């Protein structure tokens, strides 16, 4: 059953009272950065007006904030108009994503490309590619001499693809997933374009960096993907990825400290559970230990020669590529309105969203001008 009422004992990891978490809430005045420490929530506006500012200052000392009480007793909700509303945990950070970071996802992207977004052709192409490509790309380090040799062999066999280039070549695929302030959070509806007929969730761990590119924490994310759009042309990536309500993050950002480190990200298991309105069920698992590039390398590649004065969040990619049939043999998986998507990981909790169309989802109306105006009105600038 889908609920917008936030219960930390269900949404957060088992050790949530021992960790440090950052998020945003709105109690009626406007978006407010909060710090969860020892089970108690603190309003951090006395030291930082935004989450981006909080990460830039690394101001993770709860004593510097204003106590709000035990989070379990606050009655937070993700429902629009709720008196104490839980929001997406990022605000001014750029939201980036790394694609094709696992061997299986590379194969699936090649399938999309060769099928030109036609799900009916996918099964036969998948069988041919997995036999010739699947094991090969899992055994080489991207950018290595072995990777270059595999590329040469695949080109000779007529099997090369732009997706294999970013899977085993020296440069990772990094793209902009979502505009600043457009992400949705835990317990909200997540949007799929109404004209898409082949799509899926992408359960991922998301790193959060400061302006220097230093990872300071992690959360869960759903990098919704439209396989029909991107499959027709890689130049449609923006249309496949950036749509209203199509990027979910949450529930909170877990800050790196003695209880949670980058090694926990490297060894994490990310589970996916989809429950359809017709009773359909799909489960999947993504093991971060199988990622082709280290998370810190991906963070550095996202930083590259860019500048992110407000920091950035980075989706690390997923091993999950759903091929389980839903409606008819050979069609594979695609979303239906009403699907409940749960993404979970032991050290980060779970991110739950209900699927709707981007057209039907609440419009994104609160932008940077609105935030600056709100902060100025509250005397926080």
From TrEMBL:
GO molecular function: hydrolase activity; metal ion binding
One Pfam family of this chain: FAA_hydrolase
UniProt entry tagged with the keyword Metal-binding: yes
Keywords, alphabetical: Hydrolase, Metal-binding
InterPro entries assigned: FAH, Fumarylacetoacetase-like_C, Fumarylacetoacetase_C_sf
The organism's place on the tree of life at top rank: Bacteria
Residues in Fumarylacetoacetase-like C-terminal domain copies: 174-355
GO biological process, one term: small molecule metabolic process
Family to which the UniProt record says this protein belongs: Belongs to the FAH family.
This protein's name: Fumarylacetoacetate hydrolase family protein
UniProt organism field: Gimibacter soli
Phylogenetic lineage: Bacteria, Pseudomonadati, Pseudomonadota, Alphaproteobacteria, Kordiimonadales
């Amino acid at each position: 059953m889908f609920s917008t009422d936030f219960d930390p004992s269900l949404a957060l990891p088992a050790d949530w009272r021992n960790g440090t978490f950052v998020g945003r809430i709105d109690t009626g005045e406007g978006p407010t950065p909060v710090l969860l420490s020892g089970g108690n929530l603190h309003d951090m506006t006395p030291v930082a007006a935004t989450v981006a500012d909080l990460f830039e200052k690394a101001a993770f000392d709860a004593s510097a904030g204003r106590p709000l009480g035990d989070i379990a007793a606050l009655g937070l909700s993700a429902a629009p108009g709720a008196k104490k509303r839980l929001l997406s945990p990022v605000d001014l950070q750029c939201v980036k994503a790394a694609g094709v970071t696992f061997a299986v996802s590379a194969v699936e992207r090649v399938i999309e490309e060769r099928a030109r977004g036609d799900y009916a052709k996918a099964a036969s192409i998948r069988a041919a590619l997995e036999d010739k490509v699947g094991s090969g790309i899992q055994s080489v380090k991207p950018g290595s001499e072995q990777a270059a040799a595999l590329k040469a062999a695949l080109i000779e066999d007529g099997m090369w693809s732009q997706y294999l280039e970013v899977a085993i070549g020296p440069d990772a695929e990094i793209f902009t997933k979502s505009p600043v302030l457009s992400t949705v959070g835990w317990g909200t509806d997540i949007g799929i374009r109404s004209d898409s007929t082949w799509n899926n969730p992408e359960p991922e761990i998301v790193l959060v960096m400061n302006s220097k590119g230093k990872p300071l924490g992690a959360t869960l994310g759903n990098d919704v993907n439209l396989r029909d759009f991107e499959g027709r042309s890689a130049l449609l990536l923006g249309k496949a990825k950036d749509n209203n309500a199509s990027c979910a993050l949450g529930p909170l950002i877990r800050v790196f400290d003695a209880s949670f480190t980058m090694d926990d990200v490297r060894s994490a298991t990310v589970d996916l559970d989809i429950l359809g309105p017709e009773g359909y069920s799909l489960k999947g698992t993504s093991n971060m230990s199988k990622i082709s590039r280290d998370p810190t390398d991906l963070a550095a590649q996202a930083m590259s020669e860019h500048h992110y004065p407000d920091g950035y969040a980075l989706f690390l990619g997923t091993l999950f590529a759903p091929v389980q049939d839903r409606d008819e043999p050979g069609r594979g998986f695609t979303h239906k309105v009403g699907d409940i998507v749960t993404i979970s990981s032991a050290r980060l909790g779970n991110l739950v969203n209900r699927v709707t169309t981007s057209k039907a989802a609440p419009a994104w109306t609160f932008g940077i001008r609105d935030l600056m105006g709100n902060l100025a009105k509250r005397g926080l600038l």
